[in-house]
Design a protein that fits this description.
This protein is α/β, with parallel strands linked by helices. The chain has 4 helices and 11 strands. It has helices at about 35-45, 65-75, 150-155, 170-180; strands at about 1-5, 15-20, 50-55, 80-85, 85-90, 105-110, 115-120, 140, 160-165, 180-185, 190-195.
């Protein structure tokens, strides 16, 4: 069975498919996931064997779901095959390691969230809900371009993902850390997801 990430053109696939579009279904509810292990369990319990998605297009409805999907696919997906604009990824045979106690994310991009470090569970606001109706939590640690580099490095040591906006002015020191310790998973129109190298 295929899970198709936030994509609707399914004609001709000739396999049982499930869309994970948050507003259309409730089988795949990413808010419960805290890392790649719990995402694997959710997919496995539903009988998923493959994931299909258009790279760099159509992010999930929440920042949490986009980051966790990328973490799962890019760090634990078994095989990948490209079919036009879509990529097919095979589920791993073994479950990823247990979810971390804290899955820290540095947000420097996502509309509505303040700049700073969040736990992944805080990034569950559905982006199609009007901003005035969202309950956006404050970051655990605020980011500022005036932050001391030692303080930034200390926070980055425990960071598993970084989200940046293309036009955001990332400092040279932060760019150096991104290049050294992270890799670019996906570049969407509104934001880019970097994941820690494992």
């Amino acid at each position: 069975m295929l899970v198709v990430r936030n994509y609707r053109l399914l004609l001709g696939i000739d396999r049982k498919t499930y869309s994970d579009v948050q507003s259309w279904q409730s089988l795949f509810f990413y808010e419960r996931a805290k890392g790649a292990h719990s995402l694997y369990q959710m997919y496995k319990d539903a009988g998923v064997t493959h994931l299909l998605y258009p790279p760099n297009q159509r992010p999930q409805g929440t920042l949490q779901a986009s980051i966790l999907f990328d973490d799962f696919v890019y760090n634990y997906g078994k095989t990948r095959k490209r079919f036009g604009s879509l990529e097919l990824v095979t589920m791993p045979e073994q479950a990823p390691p247990p979810d971390p106690a804290e899955y820290r994310v540095l947000n420097l991009a996502k509309d509505g969230y303040a700049l700073g470090w969040y736990d992944i569970e805080q990034l569950h606001e559905f982006d199609r809900v009007p901003r005035k109706m969202r309950k956006i939590p404050p970051p655990k640690v605020r980011y500022s371009v005036a932050m001391d580099q030692a303080a930034i490095n200390k926070q980055l040591d425990d960071t598993l993902a970084v989200v940046v906006k293309d036009d955001h002015d990332v400092s040279p020191a932060l760019q150096e850390r991104l290049s050294k310790d992270f890799f670019r998973a996906e570049k969407f129109k509104a934001f880019t997801v970097y994941l820690r190298r494992r």
